[in-house]
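Pinned message: reference record for Reverse transcriptase
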Amino acid sequence: MEGLEFSVAKTQFMTLNNPRSDDQPISINGQVITKCEEYKYLGNILHSSGDLEHNIQQSIAAAWLKLREITGVTCDKKMGVKLKGLFYKAIIMAVLMYGSETWAPTQRHVHAIHVVEMKMLR
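Predicted structure (tokens):
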């Protein structure tokens, strides 16, 4: 057989916003497909509840990690404030907001990102 090979053992499925947990299992050629609660796709975490909490927490953690990596540059007294601001915008904000174009954030999510941004700027 040429072309695409389908591995049933590695296949999982996820349903979004499905309150029923008594769904019938899906099977292919007699093998049951497992159900997963979250799935990472192109850097975003898709969760079965449809909530953005996992994406936002992941972005915040990645931004803090990058901030720690460039601390040597941002804490250098010889560097000007303007240059430090450019580093912050180019690196930290880019990491924090990566993938946010596909989000549908609530006011709570926007507030959480704003709080993290203010903590980082201090």
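Pinned by admin. Summary line: The chain has a mean pLDDT of 84.
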